[in-house]
């Protein structure tokens, strides 16, 4: 508990320093970490946790059921349409909406339970084949489609994953691209709900915040690599 608590406080101090008065949401990425690790983060005051695989998340949520009251659950992994139902039923926000087909699935399942599903559109900022997401042009198309056709989806902003570099300064242009896309969308659509720019992870969140992020997703810097679930 002491280590996780100390790590969270150190990260929060860094966030405050780089945010310069802006509100930044710290999402603890609990994927690959145990339910006990997640509970330690929640006990330390974390109100947002993230998972990337349905099959890993659900058993963990069962164990944590009493601890999850008031905690927002974010899905951040690539989501296939055939798993949209479980994501909608178990997560407060889906950060990886990347296609119209997926929007249709999310909307259909949200309607089944009379839920408005919060989503972020995942923007692909690099050419890496391992990265998923939509192009800048597709982000606008997905947003407009959801507004016109998906009454049970609320698009709250953009998420992106920048490529990894040993030299962290090299990541800055990718964050600039995401911020410009986000700002252009806000000006274009004038939607007050479109307010979240989720970018920045353990190795680069300071630069992400400096470039305009207002939500960071941090796992290893909180829990440490030794706590990975094998």
Structure characterization notes:
With 230 residues, this protein is an alpha/beta fold. The chain has one domain: Alpha-Beta Barrel (TIM Barrel), CATH 3.20.20. It is built from nine helices and eight strands. The protein has an eight-stranded parallel β-sheet with strand order 7-6-5-4-3-2-1-8. The radius of gyration is 17 Å and the shape is globular. The chain starts with a helix and ends in a 7-residue tail after the last helix. The model has no long low-confidence stretch (mean pLDDT 94).
List the helices and strands and how they pair.
Blueprint: H1 2-19, E1 25-29, H2 35-43, E2 48-51, H3 54-63, E3 72-75, H4 84-90, E4 93-97, H5 100-112, E5 117-123, H6 136-149, E6 153-160, H7 172-189, E7 196-198, H8 205-210, E8 215-218, H9 220-223
Parallel strand pairs: 1-2, 1-8, 2-3, 3-4, 4-5, 5-6, 6-7
Helix pairs in contact: 4-5
Shape: globular
Beta-strand residue percentage: 15-25%
Question: What is the CATH topology classification name?
Answer: TIM Barrel
Largest sheet strand order: 7-6-5-4-3-2-1-8
Q: How many domain regions?
A: 1
Distinct helical segment count: 9
Architecture per CATH nomenclature, i.e. the level-2 architecture: Alpha-Beta Barrel
Output mean pLDDT.
94
Radius of gyration: 17 Å
Question: What share of residues is helical?
Answer: 40-55%
The secondary structure category is alpha/beta
Uncertain segments: none
Question: What is the H-and-E element order?
Answer: HEHEHEHEHEHEHEHEH
**What is the CATH superfamily?**
Alanine racemase
CATH uppermost class: Alpha Beta
The largest pleated sheet is described as:
8 strands, parallel
Q: Let me know the number of strands.
A: 8
Distance between the ends: 20 Å
């Amino acid at each position: 508990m002491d280590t996780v608590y100390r790590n969270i406080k150190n990260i929060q101090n860094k966030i405050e320093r780089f945010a310069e008065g802006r509100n930044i949401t710290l999402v603890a990425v609990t994927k690959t970490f145990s339910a006990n690790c997640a509970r330690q983060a929640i006990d330390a005051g974390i109100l947002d946790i993230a998972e990337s695989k349905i099959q890993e998340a659900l058993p963990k949520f069962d164990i944590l059921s009493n601890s999850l009251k008031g905690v927002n659950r974010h899905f951040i992994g690539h989501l296939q349409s055939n798993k949209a139902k479980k994501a909608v039923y178990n997560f407060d926000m889906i950060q990886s909406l990347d296609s119209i087909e997926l929007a249709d699935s999310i909307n259909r399942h949200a309607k089944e339970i009379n839920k408005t599903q919060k989503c972020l559109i995942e923007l692909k900022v690099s050419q890496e084949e391992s990265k998923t997401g939509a192009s800048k042009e597709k982000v606008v198309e997905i947003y407009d489609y959801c507004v016109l056709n998906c009454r049970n989806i609320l698009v709250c902003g953009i998420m992106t994953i920048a490529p990894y570099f040993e030299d962290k300064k090299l990541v800055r242009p990718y964050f600039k691209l995401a911020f410009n896309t986000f700002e252009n969308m806000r000006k274009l659509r004038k939607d007050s709900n479109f307010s979240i720019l989720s970018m920045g992870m353990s190795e680069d969140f300071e630069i992400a915040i400096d470039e305009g992020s207002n939500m960071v997703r941090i796992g290893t810097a909180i829990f440490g690599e030794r706590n990975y679930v094998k």
